[in-house]
Amino acid sequence: MSIAAYIKVIGRGKDGARPLDTDQARDLLDQVLDGKVTDLEVGAFALAMRIKGETVEELDGFVQSAHAHCLPLPAPPAGGVVVLPSYNGARKLPNLTALLACHLARAGIAVLVHGPLKDPARVTTAEVFQALRLPLATSADEVAQAWQSQRPAFIDIATLSPSLARLLDVRWTIGLRNPGHTVAKLLAPWPAEVPSVRVVNHTHPEYAHSLTGYLSHTQATALLMRGTEGEPVADARRQPKFEVFVRGERDDVLSRAPVEGVLTELPALPESREAVATAAYIQAVLRGDSPLPTSIATQAECLTQVLRQSTAQS
Prior knowledge:
Shape: globular
Mean pLDDT: 94
């Protein structure tokens, strides 16, 4: 098979390219993830979409395809699950996604974190989990065991979806991200009736618009925010805006306005972004020796309220 016909549509530059509908986008990514196309076609697809950008319908089709290529996961407990897609890691600031995950899990909430094990230039959440001596799940059974032990479950994207992981790795060949990176941050691989809330984060304002359209179009329940260096955790120094969507509708009551104004005090954070230093800081917070940053506490409270509402509606 070939995706040449699709590349001809999407590959005519920013002004000449035309969008695919949802079914076409799903078929295109199915062929890519099934390994039915050549490396040259994959590269052409990645570059064409990078230039054109994804429409809401294309994102919908791509995510449907990616979900179909995920490892079947166990149903979460009756209270539902919070999903934290973690794909950027720490570049300058400490990566505190594991702190949010652990804080939620201690409150009895099932948490799934997924992302890569390594990044050559950044500190990944997986590395922080390992420094905390939290086991990484290598199967659906181990995800369930983590929840039963009130631990957050981390699963490597190469385990959750080997074919999507291969598409993400194309970045290291061509030097650019591709639609797989946006799709990975939208993964919540359960049927719609399973109570869940995912944190959907972005780094650039234009993505906020497309992701808002996607969440509304797919009737998703999610917390949309500007990530901390692309991670799904609030900046420990200043709370960003939290936009909550419940079944595709923005909820003004559950959403939170950003903290504005001049910072008068900064939280005590680890001096190094390295995994060991970050883990030591997280352990100090969990022991109560250091305070939980207010922004992360607010994010956890917001997610808890959204999940409760989602569970009640289910």
